[in-house]
Fold:
Amino acid sequence: MIRGRLAPSPTGALHLGNARTFLLAWLSVREQGGRVVLRVEDLDGPRVKSGAAAAAIDDLRWMGLDWDEGPDCGGPHAPYIQTERAARYNDEIERLRVQRLIYPCVCSRSDIFGAASAPHPGEEGPRYPGTCRGRFDSADAARTVAGRDPALRFVVPAGPVDFDDQSLGRLSIDVAAQVGDFVVRKGNGTAAYQLAVAVDDAAMQITEVVRGDDLIASTPRQILLYRALGQAPPAFRHVPLVVGRDGLRLAKRHGDTRIASFRRRGVRPERFVGVLAQWCGLKPAGAECMPPDLVRGFDWNGVPSERIVCVGDNVLD
Structure:
């Protein structure tokens, strides 16, 4: 059976861009007669906002999306909140340790910037140069030297990772050259995003992942983890983001595009979903509908392949 997921992160309120991606992910699964899983990805501790997870669930319900498993309805693969799944992550970390596929690292972010001979700046910083690979016999040894708990990094093999994207075709990304060995557990003991997502998708038997194209770079790292853990990766489909007039993904500078803001302004869910359906190439401008109205005949071939430009928070006026 096809199994897809909606995975909001409670680091802020959901906005129009999130809503469009979640709608497409939901439609893809429902059109195939599959099951939808809702998972709350709340491991980014300092950025998680109180009440944001409950608000996201409420927003998704308001726009007419539903799911078969999740934190509010349970299911065979519970818990569906990542901060409640630490034991599972630790088990998989131990499996990687036994295979000698991870190692302790005490490098700070500034250390990595200073050591990178050819940095590739971005949201995750420059490529990790492998400073701590082979440096310590154990995490205890690393802790003794650094005076703090080490992070754990995954040993990335040389060469590109090839994979098929359902929208973009065959892609090849050299993780070793672009990112280097990446963190799978932070120094505070929390599982890193890449590990948690791969472990959860495998455990929850996710067969299809639909997400924004800003996460393409994460896919080869997760594929490497699937392989190391003896799991088959799901099919991936990366969809164009909704961006502002400056071409950047939606943020406060583009106006208040939060779902909650439109709700407070009295926008009806049928109007809200109608705009998303227009952006997805499923309905003409001005149409009003709800997600179940779009399931019959949903076809990825009709979804635009270019990014959607949102003119501001008056887009639904």
The chain has two domains: 3-82+240-309, 86-196. The domain at 86-196 is CATH 3.40.50.620 (Rossmann fold). The CA atoms of residues 116 and 129 lie 6 Å apart.
